[in-house]
Amino acid sequence: MQRVPRSVKRCSDSGNWNKVNPIIYNPFSLERNVKNMAALATTSSMACPTPTPSPLHYYYWSANSSTSLKRSSSTSLRISASSLADASALLKAAHHTVETYVKSGMVVGLGSGQGSAMAIEYLGRQLRSGAFRDIVGIPMSVESASEAAKAGIPLDNYQDNSQIDFAFDDADVIEEGTLTAIIGRQSLQSDESLIQEKSILKAADKLVFMVSKKQYRGGLDGSIPVLVQSLNWLETAEEIDDLFLGDAEVWRRPAIGHAGPLGGDFPLVTREGHNVLDVIFTSPISSLDEVAKSLDKIDGGVDHGVISKFPKRKVKGSYPFFFNMQKNNPQVRCTAVIASESGLSIVDNLSKNSVEGL
After folding, report:
1. Signal peptide: which range, if any (predicted)?
2. Distance CA 286, CA 289 (A)
3. Are residues 142 and 189 in the same domain?
4. Closest to 150 measured CA to CA, from 109, 127, 120, 186
5. What is the DSSP letter of 214?
């Protein structure tokens, strides 16, 4: 059976359903879906002068009947104007990241998240069109490997000595001014590896984080994931709790559903065999770098979701050339591409430059 979505909207002053022209949903094209949903929202608002929240209902077309459409009661998506705007802005950030920083012949670290998925799809399309050649992707997760395979990007596995020219990724939040980022807040699967994602980001000569405007701010709060050894996780959790007493709570992450602070009967175990502690800050963090340094010293701690320490990229050549290169044209190690409805803001971590309105 062929799946055909239609936008269905009920006007507040009418009992009739106004069916708008169907828009084909392509599960393999994130960009097309974003544009289609935006067009869908615009068309729906024109169909009814007093709009109400518009559900997107999925219909199934039966090959045995050319006159009947059956509405699926199990699948209904509500599209808000804000989510559409965020997705559209993030799509621009993904295109900018690929067009600006990726070059032919590069080994590229492929991140996880909505923006990274859009960038992976666009990179694959550019490869097929001939805009890029000889690109090799290093996926940071099973999700990014799957997206890259669908996009037709050649892949290689990450090794400790892998040379990575460029990497892009989504961040949960970025600290304004320092570009110190937090990753791993989203639920990890047992076959995912925060350690591998962080290793690829650190190994890259240059990296870009794609975030929305609300994810780039100072005075961050919320959770920081910390990987700990499973055997003595409780002692480690108590040490972290004492370290940030009054400022944070420590919960062990469950593998499924929701659980109490101890993680329930099925705590999450990562691919490397570690538990994940969510250190949830209830008050603003004055410095993410200082928090990261404190977590690095915890007995039983393996790693955490704070990404910082972005040194200048080494430039080959004699000392005078190296000095002048660093002085006059410093190599930017990390860049944040910040998406908003008004455009893109580009911020790097070394010169603290900000370019807005792209």
Report:
1. none
2. 9
3. yes
4. 120
5. G
Co-location of 191 and 213 in the same domain: yes
Q: In the structure encoding, which two tokens stand for residue 293, read together?
A: 């340094």
Q: Which of 143, 197, 341, 356 is catalytic?
A: 197
Selection from 217, 229, 226 nearest residue 251 by Cα = 226
* The amino acid at 163: Q
Contacts of 323 (CB under 8 A, 6+ apart): none
Per cent of the chain over pLDDT 70 is: 66
**H/E element, 165:** none
Tell me what pLDDT residue 84 has. Answer: 73
Number of structural domains in the chain: 3
Task: Give the DSSP H or E segment for 30.
Answer: helix 30-47
Q: What CATH number is associated with residue 267?
A: 3.30.70.260
Same domain? For 212 and 226 the reply is no
Residue 192's nearest CA partner among 151, 253, 119 is: 253
Tell me: do 196 and 325 sit in the same domain.
yes
- Regarding pTM above 0.70, the answer is yes
Residues present in the chain in total: 358
Strands, sheet with 69-78, edge to edge from the N-terminal-most edge strand: 17-19, 2-10, 55-61, 69-78
- Report how far residue 146's alpha carbon sits from residue 117's, in angstroms, rounded to the nearest whole number: 10
| Domain carrying residue 231 | 219-309
Report the alpha-carbon distance of residue 329 to residue 349 in Å, rounded.
Answer: 14
Task: Please check whether residues 243 and 305 belong to one and the same domain.
Answer: yes
Query: What pLDDT digit, counting tens, does each position of 37-95 carry?
Result: 555 444 444 444 444 443 333 323 333 434 333 444 443 444 455 677 778 899 999 99
User: pLDDT-derived band of residue 34, with 50, 70 and 90 as boundaries?
Assistant: low
- Whether residue 175 lies in the annotated active site: no
